[in-house]
Amino acid sequence: MMKGMLFADRYKLEEFIGQGGMSLVYRAVDIRTGHSVAVKILKSEYNSDKEFLERFQREAQAASMMSHHNIVNLLDVGVEGEYRYLVLEYVSGNTLKDIIRQKGRLTWQTSIQVAVRILSALQHAHDNGIIHRDIKPQNVLIHADGHVKVADFGIARMTNAFTISKGDTVVGSVHYSSPEQASGTVVEFPSDLYSTGVVMYEMLTGRVPFVGDTPVAVAMQHLNDMPPPIVDFAPETPASVIAVVMKAMAKNPKDRFQSAREMADALLQAKAGTLDPEVLLTQSRAADAPARKNTRHSNENKHPSGKTAPVKRNTHRKRAKAGYAVLTALLTVAALALLTFGVIAIFDEVANRVLAPDLSDCTAQDASNMVKRSGLIWQQTDVNSDVIPAGYVISQMPEADTAMRQGDSILVTVSLGPAQETMPDYVGTTYETASTKLRDKGFTITVVRIVSTEPIGTVVQQSPKGGSPYTPGQDVELTLSGGSTIVPNVSGMTLEEAQQTLGQSGLVAGDPLYAPVEDSAQIGRIIAQTPAADTQAIVEGKVIVTIGVEDTAAFRGEISFEMAPSEGNRTIRVVLVENQGEMEQHSEVYPAGNSGTVTVPLKSAYGGSMICRIYVDSMLYLEQSVNLVKEEP
User: Fold this and answer.
1) Would you say 595 and 588 are in contact if contact means Cβ atoms under 8 Å apart?
2) Tens of pLDDT along 562-598?
3) Which member of 21, 226, 352, 374 has the greatest number of CB atoms within 10 A?
């Protein structure tokens, strides 16, 4: 394993997370920021494999083109020795596959929430010309706070690629592959929507739609078979939700939703109870039905024998001529009438005929203006949407370019944005009360304690504040009263004496630090403490003391690091790790604005390679191996 390696002098590998077909994934710490990142490393045996190198490069290229809150974002790319790597956003949580295994299946409401976020990520990818081609629960990460992230664009294809070989099209996991992937034909955007439909089927039922003894057997079912009915496994699922899944899983790409946004809109309408499943079924039937033309047939009146009837001579020729004249006049009038009415009808058709405008990606105001300029009547309905920003058009009926007549109505659905409730105000309540109610609502909680005269455990602040909007499942920070006590002066005491004195003030002595001293009277005595004496601290807070030890350091070294400018003062502390304890080497407050290279001399009774840690305002900033050598006499 590669744990402990440092990539680009910045990313230290901390923990092996897992591996895929071509790469290893580690959780690492960015030592410049202290943040966790994921480092994806191409397995060394594939360094000379052109296909795997291209796939790895393709993932980097695809990820670099996107930045979206539902996509695992790319942070860095590089080569460290023989290793090619990507640095990605670290998501602390589980895969959707893990969650389905744990829970058996998900509720239809939760399934919609997850699917809409997958579709939001896909719409962003598709807008950038990228087809994922491997949507499956294993590639959907659920953060501990509930956020959904789509990962692994390793086999993604940019639609502007010059050529796509046949062998390159049969990719993805067979249980989630679209029929066109299974048949080896070129895939387009609807392929990702088919896979999303399969993922949603699995969320609802707890099983994949098609199973078989071999991948080929599963692929053939994708091509030819219908999945078992969802109601057999999840009878509570609304018909409208099932209709959306079935349309997404249509065998013919043309019968599916034609964009991720369209599918997300349908799911949101199904969740709101405003989607008629028959509408989707009717659309599917219309797509399958062959085009039919209406023909009109005219019949000629003929003599039963098929011959022209003979005309009898009339001895009253004048009367006949008069009859012909009247008939001719009547026919002329009729012809003129028909011509007049035809001209009027044609004029009416040409003058009043319009095509429904395309309102996609428009604000409601711009769309309304377009509709009115077309001579149509604007009718608006508003719904919440987690995908479409507030004030923008979600859908229209009829669709763009549909033939209409001026005065017809066009129904436009406009987004209200995500559904939001207001945060209850828990300030003044106890932590037990606030935490119970927040967890019942699905929130995660972060606790901060501060010095306060309020009773210990009382909520004194919260974020978001009471009355402000929030997103379900987000993190809520509760600031609790830690009480208040004065830190006593323990300088010059032994550790045992200090522990007793601190305990009398409601404080606790933390793990001590040690520092060499020249004055033998200070050996075994406390020479420094944090927080300082006579300052306020929370009850049961820790006080870190530094104890003097004999200066037996015979080994010397140094460490250098870059200090960036800051707006406020910073306390920088440097320690060496000795016998699982920290030996302080340097502690100093640096004024605001100070920057540049800082070099700190190190000394110890031990030689060789040792761990040196640098803390900035009590937060670990850098951990690095240093080499200490024996001091020359």
Assistant:
1) no
2) 888 887 888 899 999 887 778 889 988 888 888 889 9
3) 374
Residues 363 and 357: their CA atoms lie apart, in Å, by 14
Residue pair 293/441 in contact by the 8 Å Cβ criterion: no
pLDDT value for 338? 44
Nearest to 253 by CA among 208, 192, 162: 192
d(CA 600, CA 593): 19
- R_g of the chain, CA atoms, integer Å: 38
Query: Nearest Cα to 58, choosing from 172, 155, 171?
Result: 155
Q: Is the pLDDT of residue 169 over 60?
A: no
Q: What is the pLDDT of residues 478-490, one digit of tens each?
A: 999 999 999 999 9
For residues 200 and 105, the answer to whether their CB atoms sit within 8 Å is no
Catalytic residue list contains 134: yes
DSSP H or E stretch at residue 99: helix 96-103
How far apart, in whole angstroms, are the C-alpha atoms of residue 47 and residue 523? 57
Cα 35 from Cα 213, distance rounded (Å): 44
* Complete DSSP assignment for 49-68: -HHHHHHHHHHHHHHHT---
- Residues 136, 133: Cα–Cα separation, whole Å: 9
- What is the average per-residue pLDDT within 118-127? 91
- Taking the CA atoms of residue 266, residue 271, residue 248 and residue 283 in that order, the dihedral angle to the nearest 10 degrees is -50
Q: Tell me how far apart the alpha carbons of residues 434 and 438 are, in angstroms, rounded to a whole number.
A: 6
Query: How far apart, in whole angstroms, are the C-alpha atoms of residue 562 and residue 552?
Result: 30
Closest CA to 194 of 176, 175, 171, 182: 176
Angle at 545 between CA 544 and CA 548, to 5 degrees: 150
Using DSSP, state whether 102 is helix, strand or coil.
helix
Digit-coded pLDDT (tens) for 6-18: 988 889 998 888 7
> In sequence order, what are the residues at sequence separation of 6 or more whose Cβ sits closer than 8 angstroms to the Cβ of residue 391?
363, 364, 365, 414, 415, 417
Count of other CB atoms within 10 angstroms of residue 315: 6
CB 161 within 8 A of CB 27: no
Using CA atoms, how far apart are residues 477 and 475, in angstroms rounded to an integer? 7
3-state secondary structure of 94: strand
User: What is the rounded CA–CA span in Å between residue 572 and residue 265?
Assistant: 53
d(CA 365, CA 383): 16
Structural contact between residues 210 and 175, judged by C-beta atoms closer than 8 angstroms: yes
Report the candidate in 585, 629, 625, 631 with the shortest Cα–Cα distance to residue 607: 629
CA dihedral of 8, 11, 16, 20, whole degrees rounded to 10: -50
Contact call for residues 245 and 115 (beta carbons, < 8 A): no
Catalytic residue, candidates 30, 134, 152, 192:
134
Place of tokens 């790597």: 85
Go through the chain and tell me how many residues it has.
Answer: 633
pTM value? 0.46
Q: Which residues, including other chains, have CB under 8 Å from residue 46's CB and lie 6 or more apart? A: 22, 52, 53, 56
**Over the stretch 348-396, which tens digit does the pLDDT of each residue have?**
444 567 788 888 878 999 899 988 888 888 878 777 776 788 889 887 8
Whether the Cβ atoms of residue 257 and residue 266 lie closer than 8 Å to each other:
yes
Phi, psi of 485 (to 5 degrees): -150, 160
Asked if residues 205 and 233 have their Cβ atoms less than 8 Å apart, the reply is yes
Residue ranges of the alpha helices (H) in 229-316? Answer: 239-248, 260-272, 277-288
